Amino acid sequence: MAGFDDLASERSKAQFDVEEMKVIWAGSRHTLEVSDRISRLVANDPVFRKDTRTMLSRKDLFKNTLRKAAHAWKRIIELRLSEEEAAELRFYVDEPAFMDLHWGMFIPTIKGQGTEEQQQKWLPLAYKMKIIGCYAQTELGHGSNVQGLETTATFDPQTDEFIIHSPTLTSSKWWPGGLGKVSTHAVVYGRLIIDSKDYGVNGFIVQLRSLDDHLPLPGITIGDIGMKFGSGAYNTMDNGVLRFDHVRIPRDQMLMRVSQVTREGKLVQSNVPWQLVYGTMVYVRQKIVSDASCALSRAVCIATRYSAVRRQFGLQSNGIETQVIDYKTQQSRLFPLLASAYAFRFVGEWLKWLYMDVNQRLQASDFSTLPEAHACTAGLKSLTTSATADGIEECRKLCGGHGYLCSSGLPELFAVYIPACTYEGDNIVLLLQVARFLIKTVSQLGSGKEPVGTTVYMGRVEQLMQCHCAVQKAEDWLKPSVILEAFEARSMRMSVASAQNLAKFDNQEEGFLELSADLVQAAVAHCQLIVVSKFIEKLQQDIPGKGVKGQLEALCNIYALFILHKHLGDFLSTGCITPKQASLANAQLRSLYSQVRPNAIALVDAFNYTDHYLSSVLGRYDGNVYPKLYEEAWKDPLNDSVVPDGYQEYIQPILKQQLRNARL
Ligand SMILES: CCCCCCCC/C=C\CCCCCCCCC/C=C/C(=O)SCCNC(=O)CCNC(=O)[C@H](O)C(C)(C)COP(=O)(O)OP(=O)(O)OC[C@H]1O[C@@H](n2cnc3c(N)ncnc32)[C@H](O)[C@@H]1OP(=O)(O)O
Ligand SMILES: Cc1cc2nc3c(=O)[nH]c(=O)nc-3n(C[C@H](O)[C@H](O)[C@H](O)COP(=O)(O)OP(=O)(O)OC[C@H]3O[C@@H](n4cnc5c(N)ncnc54)[C@H](O)[C@@H]3O)c2cc1C
Questions:
Q1: Is the ipTM of this complex over 0.95?
Q2: Ligand 1: which of 101, 374, 422 to mutate, most ligand atoms within 8 Å of CB?
Q3: At the topology level of CATH, where does 106-270 sit?
Q4: Where are the domains of the chain?
């Protein structure tokens, strides 16, 4: 049978130890064990079925999500799951819900921005889910511009309270997940006003709904903002609207780690930088980078398996057609995405480390690495989510017509994923933050302040502005030092050119706006360098398992040379490489595709995804695509009856009309 045989035969061709690659992908043997166990637990639990999701009405879909969330919480308690296991369970349940915001933003905000006393008061309630919280920052009129928020929190010294108010329609909170129908509490961001003076944006814990009957508290108007893109998809989430009419909260519900308001109404700044008010966004952006590798690898797994099962044209001697994965065009679209999935996995791992490191330093009042952490999380969030959103759509096209069916799993994955390019910071706005950081770094070169972290390479500005790529033959592109130098030189030269152009403006802010499109490209170049360099660093670690390191080297080179090929204009116009070297890079890329080809199925098997998680007929582990596609079609509610509802009202009259016309 086609499919079964194809995938079995592909697996037998693998030239590396798949089980060891699974460990590399998971991060450790322990993580693999946890993820494997929990994914099976979820797959075998009927409550977590997801095959009807795209066909449910919004109300039924939402109720179904509530049921799953409640069941997930019950299982977490019953099985005494650790935090790590609970997070895996949430991952494999694979349905955005209010819990994500409660655990992913509300709790981290209290931890990061609350004082010790505030943490002691609120965290136990939140951990036991006696309250459910969300993160209410964005407003109808302001999302990207956080300093432009309009909600006010005015201190009333008479009662020792803040009055939370929405002064305009555009100040209505708009978008927060979990807010619309579920959350009992929110961290609300608003302008702190004391004695008519505006002290900028701060976070406040506000109770929204009664803990007895879930009704909104007096002065609060609250609801869901409506259907979003795609069927199923992110519509499991109750993104909400919220307005305050002079709602009073006690003074101690302002999050006071960064600044405190005293009983007398005095604002006292602590020694931590005010940017910590933005801290939750740094945490979540870091998480989003790891999630990008999951979403991309999932799409790539589906497209790769299907490409080995699908056959078109080119009858071989045995009378069967060619597997589409053997077409070079298919490989040149698919394998860079496979390589990107691995690249994002490793840069995500590194970013997690960076975040932990900065957090530890913050606890010890060392704030020196905060700007670097902000630039890296913002830039990599932007780079990886944009590439993943595009990559999922490319995987849909790689699956031809069947990729457009919901049963392929790709339309819903795309619809769920694409808002990641917007939430936690619009991707362009975030790249502009990176650009500011780069321009600042360049402007400080030669001032005695050495660049640190991911900008260390800028310390070699003279060498990087002048160096010439040493490639003479295609294989030279396999040397990590050659690749690194080309990427460093490109990024350096683009940042320096932007800084030089900026210097021509009398007004730097005006210049920044005028040059912003170029600045964004410089930021992309820097972020791509980070991804390439972290992949290369990963390969310098001890990597056990037959053939594993070789496969990862091939993927690393594919990622780097694919990016070089895609952004050839940058590399050529900055003089980092010559046209001849570009064509050698392309030749090397083709040869790398041939190297990966026999291992492609094993490389996606290493993600260790269950069929439940993939939820794709095309990506099934056994490759049994056609019988299952056929079977799925019959499950559509339209096929419940042979003659459709509406036949007599709408089809029959047309047919009869045509009959009369024909007789005329
Ligand atoms: C069943 C139970 C299961 C349990 C387990 C569950 C597990 C779940 C766990 C985890 C899941 C995690 C995932 C969570 C789900 C994700 C869903 C997503 C939901 C979406 C949420 C949102 O979207 S929230 C809203 C996000 N909003 C934004 O991102 C707004 C973007 N805008 C900004 O960030 C700022 O406005 C901007 C930075 C653009 C501009 O700031 P501004 O102050 O106006 O000015 P600027 O001059 O540019 O900056 C000043 C100064 O500050 C520096 N800086 C800026 N930002 C930061 C920062 N974040 N950190 C540090 N520093 C920062 C900037 O560089 C400047 O510095 P200097 O140049 O002055 O040195
Ligand atoms: C699914 C989803 C879930 C969300 N969940 C939450 C949540 O839980 N809590 C919460 O508080 N918020 C949430 N948000 C809101 C989200 O954080 C904002 O939508 C996001 O920060 C982008 O802001 P915006 O919508 O104002 O976009 P805008 O800033 O209005 O962007 C519109 C366009 O303008 C461009 N633009 C904006 N500023 C600049 C600039 N300075 N220079 C150049 N171009 C610019 C952008 O690139 C974009 O093309 C969510 C959003 C979505 C889609």
A1: yes
A2: 374
A3: Butyryl-CoA Dehydrogenase, subunit A; domain 2 (2.40.110)
A4: 106-270
